[in-house]
Specification:
about 220 residues, seven-stranded mixed sheet, two-stranded antiparallel sheet, 11 strands, about 30% helix, binds 5-O-phosphono-beta-D-ribofuranosylamine
Length: about 220
């Protein structure tokens, strides 16, 4: 059983997609704890699903080290195998990233390596980009930089503004994040670490369970964005 922690800072729509997917019990994965760095709207989604939640309020700690020490305690307490960042607005320290190397994944609203950091939709629009999208990647000490596990491309339309584009990308986020969890739990994807090096192996195959609007097959190599 893959024991997941989901870390959030805000509304939690990606969290909700992971809750809905894992609640089907189609794969041996479940969310054992949802942690937030401040009071976050998304915590109510976890509570409604009967999942343990905890606020580790960054503003109560003098520095990042003290905050992360408490985060680690909560993660160890919950005996988690995998940490899913889902709109978690904190940069984790290199030590934290190394401690959990290969065990932290993130969803980012761009086709990485394009548009690391914040404000991705507006930056893509300002650049006149033809395409945008979302990525699930492994977290490493460099921001939004770890190996990419899955991406989905979205076409930018002439009439798009930040709101319409971010909404279309978010719809795809809600598919690829559960798909990655399904593929990890079904061993279609394996993340290996060897002396600080990451290796990602994948096999094509059907993803167990149902993800609304998603083709239930993961294909590798992924079509180029
Ligand atoms: C998403 O766009 C995610 O890609 C980014 O932050 C946003 C979180 O949204 N990292 P939500 O809280 O999951 O609704």
């Amino acid at each position: 059983m893959l024991r997941l922690a989901v870390l959030i800072s805000g509304r939690g729509s990606n969290l909700q997609s992971l809750i809905a997917y894992t609640a089907q019990n189609a794969v041996p994965a479940h969310i054992v704890t949802v942690l937030a760095d401040k009071p976050a709207a998304g915590l109510a989604l976890a509570e409604a699903a009967g999942i343990e939640t905890k606020i580790i309020d960054r503003s109560l700690y003098p520095d990042r080290q003290a905050f992360e020490d408490h985060l680690i305690l909560a993660l160890e307490d919950a005996k988690v195998d995998m940490i899913c960042l889902a709109g978690f607005m904190r940069i984790l320290s290199p030590d934290f990233c190394r401690r959990y190397l290969g065990k932290i994944i993130n969803i980012h609203p761009s086709l990485l390596p394009n548009y690391k950091g914040l404000n991705t939709h507006q930056r893509a629009l300002d650049d006149g980009a033809k395409h945008h999208g979302c990525s699930v990647h492994i977290v490493t000490p460099a921001l939004d930089d770890g190996p990419i596990i899955a991406q989905h491309k979205v076409e930018i339309k002439a009439a798009d503004d930040q709101n319409s584009l971010s909404a279309r990308v978010l719809t795809e986020e809600h598919k690829i994040y559960p798909a990655v969890i399904g593929a990890l739990a079904a061993h279609l994807i394996t993340i290996k670490t060897d002396q600080g090096q990451l290796r990602l192996d994948h096999t094509s195959g059907p993803i167990p369970g149902y993800i609304p609007g998603m083709e239930h097959h993961m294909q590798w190599p992924m079509p180029a964005p």
